[in-house]
Amino acid sequence: SGQSSTNYAIGYVAGQLTVTAVPLSITANNASRAYGAANPAFTATYAGFVNGEDASVLSGTLACTTTATPTSPVTGSPYPITCSGQSSTNYAIGYVAGQLTVTKATPTFGNLTASQTIDNGTASIVLSGTIAAGSVSPPAGENVAITIHGASQTASIAGSGSFTTSFDTHAIPI
Q1: Three-state secondary structure call for residue 173
Q2: Which of 37, 42, 133, 166 could disulfide-link 33, Cβ–Cβ 3.0 to 4.6 Å?
Protein backbone atom coordinates (compact mmCIF):
# COMPACT_ATOMS: atom_id res chain seq x y z
CA SER A 1 0.00 0.00 0.00
CA GLY A 2 0.92 3.70 -0.14
CA GLN A 3 1.41 4.14 -3.89
CA SER A 4 -0.69 6.51 -6.04
CA SER A 5 -0.80 7.60 -9.67
CA THR A 6 -2.88 9.99 -11.76
CA ASN A 7 -2.59 7.72 -14.84
CA TYR A 8 -3.10 4.32 -13.22
CA ALA A 9 -5.55 2.63 -10.89
CA ILE A 10 -3.30 0.73 -8.50
CA GLY A 11 -4.57 -2.53 -7.09
CA TYR A 12 -2.76 -4.77 -4.61
CA VAL A 13 -2.64 -8.55 -4.80
CA ALA A 14 -1.39 -10.67 -1.90
CA GLY A 15 1.71 -12.76 -2.67
CA GLN A 16 3.21 -15.85 -1.11
CA LEU A 17 6.76 -16.27 0.13
CA THR A 18 8.04 -19.83 0.42
CA VAL A 19 10.99 -20.49 2.74
CA THR A 20 12.71 -23.81 2.06
CA ALA A 21 15.06 -25.79 4.26
CA VAL A 22 18.78 -25.15 3.72
CA PRO A 23 20.96 -28.17 2.85
CA LEU A 24 23.20 -29.22 5.76
CA SER A 25 25.85 -31.95 5.58
CA ILE A 26 26.93 -33.94 8.60
CA THR A 27 30.10 -35.85 7.71
CA ALA A 28 31.56 -38.58 9.92
CA ASN A 29 35.25 -37.84 10.49
CA ASN A 30 37.69 -40.57 9.45
CA ALA A 31 39.39 -42.47 12.27
CA SER A 32 41.85 -45.30 12.78
CA ARG A 33 42.79 -47.83 15.42
CA ALA A 34 44.94 -50.93 15.79
CA TYR A 35 43.51 -54.44 15.49
CA GLY A 36 42.27 -55.62 18.87
CA ALA A 37 41.74 -52.10 20.26
CA ALA A 38 38.35 -50.64 21.12
CA ASN A 39 36.78 -48.29 18.60
CA PRO A 40 37.56 -44.62 19.31
CA ALA A 41 34.83 -42.07 20.00
CA PHE A 42 33.60 -40.99 16.58
CA THR A 43 33.02 -37.31 15.71
CA ALA A 44 31.45 -35.43 12.82
CA THR A 45 31.83 -32.15 10.93
CA TYR A 46 28.89 -29.91 9.99
CA ALA A 47 28.76 -27.82 6.79
CA GLY A 48 25.97 -25.50 5.66
CA PHE A 49 24.70 -23.59 8.68
CA VAL A 50 23.41 -20.06 7.94
CA ASN A 51 22.77 -16.94 10.02
CA GLY A 52 25.58 -17.78 12.44
CA GLU A 53 23.80 -20.93 13.65
CA ASP A 54 25.51 -24.11 14.81
CA ALA A 55 24.62 -27.65 15.91
CA SER A 56 22.76 -26.33 18.96
CA VAL A 57 19.74 -25.52 16.72
CA LEU A 58 19.31 -29.17 15.73
CA SER A 59 17.01 -31.62 17.50
CA GLY A 60 18.09 -35.05 18.63
CA THR A 61 21.44 -36.52 19.55
CA LEU A 62 24.14 -37.28 17.01
CA ALA A 63 25.28 -40.91 17.08
CA CYS A 64 28.15 -42.14 14.90
CA THR A 65 28.79 -45.89 14.71
CA THR A 66 30.61 -48.55 12.71
CA THR A 67 30.15 -52.23 12.01
CA ALA A 68 33.78 -52.88 13.07
CA THR A 69 34.47 -54.59 16.38
CA PRO A 70 37.85 -55.15 18.10
CA THR A 71 38.11 -58.50 16.25
CA SER A 72 37.34 -57.05 12.79
CA PRO A 73 40.32 -57.93 10.58
CA VAL A 74 42.76 -55.53 8.95
CA THR A 75 41.91 -57.16 5.60
CA GLY A 76 38.31 -55.85 5.79
CA SER A 77 39.47 -52.29 6.43
CA PRO A 78 38.35 -49.59 5.94
CA TYR A 79 34.96 -49.94 7.62
CA PRO A 80 32.17 -47.35 7.22
CA ILE A 81 31.43 -44.85 9.99
CA THR A 82 27.83 -43.64 9.75
CA CYS A 83 26.05 -40.92 11.70
CA SER A 84 22.35 -40.33 12.39
CA GLY A 85 19.94 -38.93 14.95
CA GLN A 86 19.60 -35.20 14.28
CA SER A 87 16.77 -33.28 12.61
CA SER A 88 15.58 -29.75 11.89
CA THR A 89 12.70 -28.01 10.15
CA ASN A 90 15.09 -25.31 8.87
CA TYR A 91 17.76 -27.65 7.46
CA ALA A 92 17.61 -30.56 5.02
CA ILE A 93 20.16 -32.85 6.66
CA GLY A 94 22.29 -35.20 4.60
CA TYR A 95 24.69 -37.62 6.25
CA VAL A 96 28.06 -38.49 4.69
CA ALA A 97 29.89 -41.63 5.84
CA GLY A 98 33.49 -41.61 7.03
CA GLN A 99 35.96 -44.49 7.26
CA LEU A 100 37.53 -46.42 10.11
CA THR A 101 40.92 -47.84 9.17
CA VAL A 102 42.05 -50.86 11.18
CA THR A 103 45.85 -51.15 11.27
CA LYS A 104 48.08 -54.05 12.22
CA ALA A 105 48.55 -54.41 15.95
CA THR A 106 51.84 -54.76 17.74
CA PRO A 107 51.55 -58.10 19.49
CA THR A 108 52.59 -58.53 23.07
CA PHE A 109 54.06 -61.72 24.42
CA GLY A 110 53.50 -62.97 27.93
CA ASN A 111 54.44 -65.90 30.13
CA LEU A 112 57.45 -66.68 27.96
CA THR A 113 59.47 -69.73 28.91
CA ALA A 114 62.43 -71.20 27.09
CA SER A 115 64.08 -74.53 27.66
CA GLN A 116 66.85 -76.41 25.91
CA THR A 117 66.50 -80.02 24.91
CA ILE A 118 69.00 -82.43 23.42
CA ASP A 119 67.67 -85.31 21.33
CA ASN A 120 70.18 -87.70 19.73
CA GLY A 121 72.89 -85.05 20.00
CA THR A 122 70.79 -82.27 18.39
CA ALA A 123 70.17 -79.31 20.65
CA SER A 124 66.98 -77.28 20.31
CA ILE A 125 65.28 -74.48 22.17
CA VAL A 126 61.59 -74.81 23.03
CA LEU A 127 59.81 -71.47 23.38
CA SER A 128 56.36 -71.28 24.97
CA GLY A 129 54.12 -68.37 25.90
CA THR A 130 51.05 -66.35 25.00
CA ILE A 131 50.49 -63.72 22.34
CA ALA A 132 47.80 -61.04 22.13
CA ALA A 133 47.03 -57.84 20.23
CA GLY A 134 45.25 -55.45 22.57
CA SER A 135 42.46 -57.40 24.21
CA VAL A 136 42.31 -59.96 21.40
CA SER A 137 44.24 -63.23 21.17
CA PRO A 138 44.74 -64.82 17.76
CA PRO A 139 42.20 -67.58 17.14
CA ALA A 140 43.18 -71.20 17.73
CA GLY A 141 44.76 -72.73 14.65
CA GLU A 142 46.18 -69.46 13.34
CA ASN A 143 49.90 -69.52 12.63
CA VAL A 144 52.38 -66.86 13.71
CA ALA A 145 55.99 -66.52 12.66
CA ILE A 146 58.50 -66.10 15.48
CA THR A 147 62.03 -64.97 14.69
CA ILE A 148 65.06 -65.22 16.98
CA HIS A 149 68.29 -63.69 15.67
CA GLY A 150 67.20 -64.19 12.05
CA ALA A 151 65.98 -67.77 12.49
CA SER A 152 62.21 -68.05 11.91
CA GLN A 153 59.85 -70.70 13.09
CA THR A 154 56.08 -70.98 12.67
CA ALA A 155 53.99 -71.63 15.76
CA SER A 156 50.35 -72.71 15.70
CA ILE A 157 48.17 -70.88 18.21
CA ALA A 158 46.31 -73.01 20.72
CA GLY A 159 43.45 -71.74 22.91
CA SER A 160 43.76 -68.31 24.59
CA GLY A 161 46.66 -67.28 22.35
CA SER A 162 49.10 -69.85 23.76
CA PHE A 163 51.84 -71.35 21.60
CA THR A 164 54.86 -73.63 21.71
CA THR A 165 57.54 -73.86 19.05
CA SER A 166 61.00 -75.33 18.75
CA PHE A 167 64.19 -73.95 17.19
CA ASP A 168 67.22 -76.00 16.13
CA THR A 169 70.10 -74.25 17.87
CA HIS A 170 72.27 -74.67 14.75
CA ALA A 171 69.84 -72.38 12.88
CA ILE A 172 70.25 -69.53 15.38
CA PRO A 173 73.37 -67.46 14.69
CA ILE A 174 75.09 -66.27 17.82
Answers
A1: coil
A2: 37
Work out the number of other CB atoms within 10 angstroms of the CB of residue 7: 4
156, 163 contact by CB (below 8 A):
yes
- Length of the chain in terms of residues written: 174
DSSP H or E stretch at residue 125: strand 122-132
Please write the tens of the pLDDT for every residue from 2-31.
788 888 888 888 889 888 999 999 999 999
Please tell me the pTM assigned to this model.
Answer: 0.68
pLDDT tens track for 52-67: 999 999 999 999 999 9
Judge contact between 42 and 31, C-beta under 8 A: yes
Residues 6+ apart with CB under 8 A from 165: 126, 127, 146, 153, 154, 155
Mapping DSSP to helix (H, G, I), strand (E, B) and coil, where does residue 76 land? helix
Mind giving me the DSSP string for 19-49?
A: -PPEEEEEEEPPEEEETTSPPPPP-EEEE--
